[in-house]
Amino acid sequence: MTPDGESVGRFFYGRRYLERSDAVELDPVELGLRRGQYETARMDGFFGAIRDSMPDYWGRRVIERNTGHTQLEEFDYLMFGPDDRAGALGFGLNVQPPPPKHCFNQTIDLERLQAAADTILSDAPNIEDPTTSHAEELMLVGTSMGGAQPKAVVEHEQNLWMAKFSRHDDRWNHPRVEHGLLKLAQKCGISVAENRITNVGGRDVLLVRRFDRERTEKGYQRHRMVSALTLLQSDDSPTSRRDWSYILFADELRRVSRKPESDLRELFARLCFNAVVSNLDDHPRNHAILAKGRDWRLSPAFDLAPTPMIAMERRDLAMACGNGGRYANKKNILSQHARFLLNEEDASADLNNIVETVRNLWRPAMRESGVSKIDRKTIESAFLYQGFFH
Ligand SMILES: Nc1ncnc2c1ncn2[C@@H]1O[C@H](COP(=O)(O)OP(=O)(O)OP(=O)(O)O)[C@@H](O)[C@H]1O
Ligand SMILES: [Mg+2]
Fold first, then answer.
1. What kind and span of H or E run contains 219?
2. Could you tell me if 179 and 206 are in contact, meaning their C-beta atoms sit under 8 angstroms apart?
3. Residue of the nearest CA to atom 28 in ligand 1?
4. CA-CA distance, 308 to 125, in Å (whole number)?
5. Of 180, 262, 275, 287, which shows the fewest CB atoms inside 10 Å?
6. Cα(177)–Cα(193) distance, rounded to whole angstroms?
7. CB contact set of 75 (below 8 Å; sequence gap of 6+)
8. Nearest ligand to the C-alpha of residue 160?
9. How far apart are alpha carbons 15 and 19 in whole angstroms?
C-alpha cells in the first residue's frame, strides 16, 4: 500500500529462474526477462499478465458460491482458481510450483457440469439439489478460464477443450450460432480455434479445443497466452476503454510477433469480419497472442457472436478501428490500412472478399451448423447492416 491507500504490486523473476536456459518472459510488453523489481500501482497492483490468469465474471461466481464468501480479495480469486486457467502460469505460496493436474473432467461428465452451471446461474439457495449437492462438484465447473458465460474444461480425445454451455434465458441457440460463425470466419480465411457441437441431455454444448495446451508424453504442455488488453497495457475501467484500439493493437503486434506481416493481415481480416457480422463484443480480452515456443504470434480467433440490432445507421465495435473511432464502417476501417502493413488496394480487396463471402455463405454456414430457421431469422439483422457501406 502507498501512503494514500493505493495497492502496489511487486514482481521479480527469481535468480535461479533467470539462470535457466529455458527461462521465458511472462509477457512481451511489461515484464521483460531481467533482474530487479517491477512495480505497478495500476489495477490494484496486478500486472496485466497476472490479471489475464484470473477468473472473470463466471469463474468468480463459482468461487464465491463454493467458498460462501462474496467479499473476497482479488488475490484470493487468483489462489482459489483451479489450475486449468488460460495460459502457462501457475500460482502457489511455495517456491515449488503446484503439481500439474493429471485428472480432468471427461465429456461424459458434461451433463453433470451443465446441471451445476444451471444451479449457479439460477442462484438457487437450495444447495441440496440432488444433482449438484456437493461443493466439490460446483468446483468441477472449470472456474479459472476467463469470460462471462458458463463454461467448463473437459478432456476429450486426448485433448483439452473448453465447453461453452447454453443458458435457459438465451434468445437463440448460442452454441450452434457460435459454431456457425466460427465456420463462416474460417471460410473467410480466418484462423479459428478448432470446435464442434455436442449434445448432452437434449441441450447443445460448444466444445472449443484449447490452443494453449498440447498433449505430450509427460502430460499437457502449457503455452503462454496474453490478452490484447495486456498488450495494450489497458484495463476495463471506463477511462481506459477509450484506449482500446485495433490500430494500437496492430502497432504492438508488429513489434512482438515473429511474423508481423501475416499476423497483421489476419488481424485486419478479423476486424473486417467483426464489422460485417456485428460481432460487437470484440473487446481486447477476446483477442490474444500465444507463444507455443519462445516466439509470440496472434492466437486463433475465438468467442465470435453476432449482435442482432434494430439500429441500421451506425454500429460501434468495442475497439477503435479507424479515423472515425469505433464506427463499424467500410470507409472507417480502410482509413488506417497502412498500420496493418497493407496498401490500399490489398486492404480493399481483403475487405471486399470478406463481404462477399459473408453475403453468400452466412446462411449456409448457419444451416450446416444446425441453426434453426427461426434462429436464422432472429440473428439476420446482424449481417451486412446498411451503415457498414455508408
Ligand atoms: N480455444 C481456446 N484456447 C485457450 N483459451 C481460450 C480459448 N478460447 C477462449 N479462451 C480463453 O478463455 C476466455 C473465455 O473464453 P470466451 O471468450 O470464449 O468466453 P465468454 O464467456 O464467451 O467470453 P465473454 O465474457 O467475452 O463473452 C477467453 O477470454 C480466453 O482467454
Ligand atoms: Mg470472451
1. strand 219-222
2. yes
3. 146
4. 34
5. 262
6. 15
7. none
8. 1
9. 6
- For all residues of the chain together, what is the average pLDDT? 91
How much is the average pLDDT of 15-23?
A: 95
Q: Are strands 288-291 and 296-298 parallel, antiparallel or unpaired?
A: antiparallel
* Distance in angstroms between the alpha carbons of the first and the last residue of the chain: 51
- Is the CB–ligand 1 distance for residue 212 below 6 Å? yes
With contact defined as beta carbons under 8 Å apart, do 60 and 71 qualify? Answer: no
Q: Which atom of ligand 1 is nearest to the CA of 86?
A: 5
Q: Is residue 167 within 6 Å of ligand 1 at its C-beta?
A: no
Nearest C-alpha to atom 2 of ligand 1 is from which residue?
A: 210
Query: What ligand 1 atom has the least distance to the C-alpha of 57?
Result: 25
Ligand nearest to the CA of 318: 1
User: Kind of pairing, strands 9-11 and 38-40?
Assistant: antiparallel
Beta 9-11 vs 288-291: how paired, if at all?
unpaired
**CB 303 near ligand 1, within 6 Å:** yes
Sign of CA dihedral 169, 175, 178, 180: negative
Q: What is the pLDDT of residues 159-202, one digit of tens each?
A: 999 999 999 999 999 999 999 999 999 999 999 999 999 999 99
Nearest to 188 by CA among 263, 285, 276: 276
Residue with cell 469463474: 59
Is the CB–ligand 1 distance for residue 147 below 6 Å? yes
Q: How many Å lie between the centroid of ligand 2 and the Cα of residue 18?
A: 33
Ligand nearest to the CA of 281: 1
Going by the DSSP 8-state scheme, the letter that residue 317 receives in this structure is -
Per-residue pLDDT reduced to its tens digit, 248-282: 999 999 999 999 999 999 999 999 999 999 999 99
d(CA 243, CA 320): 8
For 150, the grid coordinates are 458458463
**Residue 124 backbone zone (phi > 0: left; psi -120 to 50: alpha; other: beta):** beta
Is residue 338 over pLDDT 80?
yes
> Which pLDDT does position 132 carry in this prediction?
47
Q: For residue 56, which atom of ligand 1 is closest to its CA?
A: 25
Q: Which residue has the cell 497492483?
A: 45
Q: Which residues pair with 297 in a beta bridge?
A: 290
